[in-house]
């Protein structure tokens, strides 16, 4: 029977998964498969697993449950193996790399930071603080029909938005990175101008959360901070 794989841990990880059920329409018990110095946490499946809300939630719950017992290498949602033999072979083949990763990630959790900015508030700031933009805007509002004005104003505003958000993102990253052992910055999407993850040691997590809360207050109106964590260190598994 095919297996859904949640995570990899050291063979001496306590697991404590006897009461957990896995993903799928017919959830099977979550269990461990030991191979050499490692253990994979799996459950039997009889169907193709799709990213439904229930299964995404169970995947996350298993990961977070395992984290409480020690370091794990969390797999992204949807990883499956043909059978136990396949899992055992993978664990043996990659044992050195997995063990090194477990050592590196031990005593840490991932925090994910996103930030977005209210577009209307940002536009008001730009028009208030940028004389050239303010002048162009006043000319358009006064009825100047020069067809180049809207394009010039749009380009100026777009450049200002990019410049201001890049500077703000850099400042936020610089302020939070000292609390992390590692970090990774991703391309922001949608309304977000910042999207990055930090690997924060357990003994610095309270400091980190305090610093993040202080930053959110200092930035003021118009910027929304969204902090997720502590999470399994998905972003830092190599």
TrEMBL record:
Which PANTHER family does the entry mention? PROTEIN GVPL 2
The scientific name of the source species is Streptomyces zaomyceticus
The reply on keyword Electron transport is no
Cellular location(s): Gas vesicle
Task: Please name the InterPro entries in this protein's record.
Answer: GvpL/GvpF
Give the top-rank taxon of the lineage listed in the UniProt record for this protein.
Bacteria
Q: What is this protein called?
A: GvpL/GvpF family gas vesicle protein
**Pfam families registered for this protein in UniProt:** GvpL_GvpF
Q: Which family does it belong to?
A: Belongs to the gas vesicle GvpF/GvpL family.
List the keywords (alphabetical). Gas vesicle
